[in-house]
Amino acid sequence: MSNAQIEIQLIASLVAIACAIPGTFLVLRKMAMISDAISHSILPGIVIGFMFIHGSFSFVDNITFLSSFKQFLITYGLESPFIILLAAFSGVITVVLVEYIQKTGLVKEDTAIGLVFPALFSIGVILIAKNANDVHLDVDAVLLGELAFAPFDRLIIDGTDIGPKALWIIGVILIITITLLIAFFKELKLSTFDKGLAASLGFSPVVIHYGLMSVSSITTVGAFDAVGAILVVALMIAPAASAYLLTTDLKKMLLLSVVFGVLSAISGYWFARFLDASISGSITTMLGFLFLLVYLFAPSKGIIAVMYREKQQRTEVSLLTFLLHLKNHDDESERHVNHLNEHINWQKVRSKTVLELALKNNMIVIDNKIVSLTPKGDEFTTQAIDYIITNEDAQIEDMKDDFFLFRG
Amino acid sequence: MDLTEYIHLVFTDYTLRTITLGTAILGAVTGMLGSFAVLRKQSLLGDAISHAALPGIAISFLITGAKDSNTLLLGALVSGLIGTFWIRGIITKTHLKSDTALGLILSLFFGFGMLLLTFIQKQPNANQAGLDKYLFGQAATLVESDVWLMAIVTGICLFVLLLFWKEFKILLFDKDYAKTLGFNTKTIDILITSFIVLAIVLGLQTVGVVLMSAMLLAPAAAARQWTNSLATMVFLAAIFGAFSGVFGTAISASQNNLSTGPVIVLVAAVFVLISFVFSPSRGLLFKQIRFIKNRRALELHKTLAFMYHIAESHANISHPHEIKILNGFQGYTKGTLKKLVEKNYVTLKGSTWSLTKEGFESALNLYNQLNKDDE
Known about the structure:
The complex is a heterodimer.
Chain A: H1 3-28, H2 32-53, H3 58-62, H4 64-75, H5 79-104, H6 109-130, H7 139-144, E1 154-157, E2 160-164, H8 165-183, H9 185-193, H10 195-200, H11 205-246, H12 250-275, H13 279-297, H14 303-328, H15 337-344, H16 348-360, E3 364-367, E4 370-373, H17 375-389, H18 395-403
Antiparallel strand pairs in A: 1-2, 3-4
Helix pairs in contact in A: 1-8, 1-11, 1-12, 2-5, 2-6, 2-11, 5-6, 5-11, 8-11, 11-12, 11-13, 12-13, 14-16, 14-17, 17-18
Chain B: H1 3-12, H2 14-39, H3 43-52, H4 54-64, H5 69-93, H6 98-121, H7 133-136, H8 144-163, H9 165-173, H10 175-180, H11 185-207, H12 212-224, H13 230-253, H14 260-278, H15 284-312, E1 321-322, H16 334-342, E2 346-349, E3 352-355, H17 357-364
Antiparallel strand pairs in B: 1-3, 2-3
Helix pairs in contact in B: 1-2, 2-8, 2-11, 2-12, 2-13, 3-5, 3-6, 3-12, 4-5, 4-6, 5-6, 5-11, 8-11, 11-12, 12-13, 12-14, 13-14, 15-16, 15-17
């Protein structure tokens, strides 16, 4: 691996970690779409920052304060932090606007999000188009980033090359994020899961909310340069969503989403090299693939597990119905195996599954095609009826553990 | 270029006429269907669908190798539908919430689409240039057949909308009731979602993947402010959408370097802004005015009640009192006093005031809600 390759993977991994941390909280707080809105609406901030530095505003030179401020930024090499702050500010503005519109009660929250960010993004796109000559930004770069070129933009201090600029930017942001995470972990955790309790204990929900929003904005902007708007959203939401399907422990979830993020960043890089296509697109694809795997195969919350459980429960409910039927009818004709098909209206396969399950669990005996309850089956049914009468159906689930040798 | 010249051009110039007509039709159909998306609280679904359509475009190009807009849009439709149903699957089958599902599908599908697009760009196929117009849309590439397609789809939408009007309406406002009446809510749901996907896909060529959701939302959100009736809202949204298209095209045509999509979105946003501020019943401006009016009325009542309590302690209710004693009272201003005089509740004589019989009566009944016309 060449130096540039290692640097690209390092930047991608750091971006993944920096995004996964706020992303986890956004997913838990049901604000995932805010990250999408922020990633689009920081565009005007970035463009205006660019234009300010590169002199597209003629009025800047006429106002002494602004022109000296610009001079100050350029002399101290603070252009990128300035643009990042400006863009992050426009991200926070989005959040404020969305909340303001929502508060007026004229439209619902999701509509408010959907109205604000396309408008801001349009302004950004138009500004870029109008100043195409001055601003070295193009819209493709905005959406996709230029990860492949990141190693060529070096940070040089006093003539020595100390690494790619993007690496430093995202590194600093990551350190800030981690520091804040460790410092305010319990506040964040509390306000995420129990807003009311957090507020009554004196942690201002507003401060925590805007803190999280500011960190998300800054991370988005910092990552934006390297990987583009869409990958930022994907890196925030996808690892957290995958992790959420695997665990319900916050610390584990954070850890898992970081691992997922880094894994897809590195595998995505190699996949992109193989296809000779966009790195950020390929990282997103890897994230998608990972999510698909988790979505299908997660042990208790994956689709397959859920469907299996649903099928199991359907059979067990049928079994219970069947046992209740047996208990209610002493008549031999009612308990004949063939009769059950027509009486309870089940298909053949279903009746067979239910009968077999009942037999396996010693709930019934079949004597000359006449089904009757065993003492164990009788006891089970009696208890179940008790629970049903007292409206405590949920208890039946626990009871099943005591009685069933085999599940449906 | 002045206005009359521009209007003349719209009718004579082929390109301009096609684009204007196309964006107008597009605005109308998205406004119409967007009303349903907004009322069903699915506003962001449009955003997710439009992003999810991108891989479909790329894949259908990879398969056919041709840049025929109809087959590309068919691909977009299929992948948009897959995205929509996956979102539904995530929400119903797992404990992930709708916002996570939307954001997930949006970014993952879009990223995959971009991967395919960059992959296609490296292919030695001269035909591939210009696929990226679907990102931000390029109204200038609209041709007459595209406009016809839009018109036909709009016609079908309108027909289905009218045919199933009451089903859509009942599903929108009371899903459980619709179920108990025996309507197949699932089918109606799928039908309406599919039409929303269709409308979004139609707009991709003009407005692009990124901004399409605003076309769906903005006209509907604006229309919502002016009415409480579904039919009026759908109609108004269609009008707003169409005008956004026409104005947006006009503005972007009159200047260099202005892409049509973002301008249309901004025009639609202006419609929303105006509606938010100036709508008579819900708008912020009139709400504020009503608020101030109510406060004034309350102050008037408070002053009257205060006077009543003073007058009460005298045998003659019209006994004159110094105006000065009102000064310490919070609700009292010169304006309220003048208003009270106008209403004939109070008479002024020099520096004194006295309650009239009428004023006394109305103050007596002030907290009696029967006295409605006492503004």
